[in-house]
Amino acid sequence: MARLSTALTPDNPEAMTPGAAAAARALERPRRRSRSLAHELVEGIGQQIQSQVLRPGDKLPTESEIMQAWGVSRTVVREALSRLQAGGLVETHHGVGTFVLEPRPATGFRIDPAEIATAVDVLAVLELRISLETESAGLAAQRRNEEQLADMRAALDLLEGNTSGTGDTVSPDFRFHLLIAGATGNRYFADIMSHLGATLIPRARINSSRVAMEDPSQYLRRVNREHEEIYEAIARRDPESARAAMRIHLTNSRERLRRAQEAAEAAALPSPEA
Prior knowledge:
This protein has 274 residues and is mostly helical. It is built from 11 helices and 2 strands. α6 runs antiparallel to α10. The longest helix is centred in the C-terminal third of the chain and has 30 residues, at 239-268. The chain starts with 17 loop residues before the first helix and ends in a 6-residue tail after the last helix.
């Protein structure tokens, strides 16, 4: 299937396929500044996917091309892409690009209304983690030593080994994040993480794979890919990429759970006819 060229730019229409040119024109449409720029970008790309201007397997323009077309910052672009990933519309492959996914079938609301209170609490923890661990990853990329990096690798290998079976995946997941906090060289990051404990991991308290509407092993493999991107950025001492990878990882979890919570709350409301 044809994919959008990575050389796609609004100023080079002759280099675009008809579908890519239409996508670029859509990205250039006037924007309402009263709404979140990231939200508008999500809506813009999402509409192109829904209308099949962007088809499954197509590659999105690069971050720089989207920044130029929309006149927004890289932070806005990354936030929008993380929301699209959380919505199951696209998937990012490190060093390759972001690709449109096959649409998922609708299966109704995703969490039991009885779990709403827990979901609200997990969301609050995820908000804290986004603030805390995004900076933690950046500092770890600058300050980690080889022994700490080896320990992170061991935690991910253990997590990967337990993904397809019945082994513990929460403990090595938490250990990976705790090791990153420890690698900052600032004991307060690790102190906060240790205090919160394994409750930091959403699936320790709520069925994350059901929230994501995925097979558990498939869900864990996707989570592991996100972990690998964080690890690789830390390994090559790239603080900006480490921060971005951690933010994407945690924002994906937050967005999936937020939508699931909203759907469950709506389902729990009494019918207007009742």
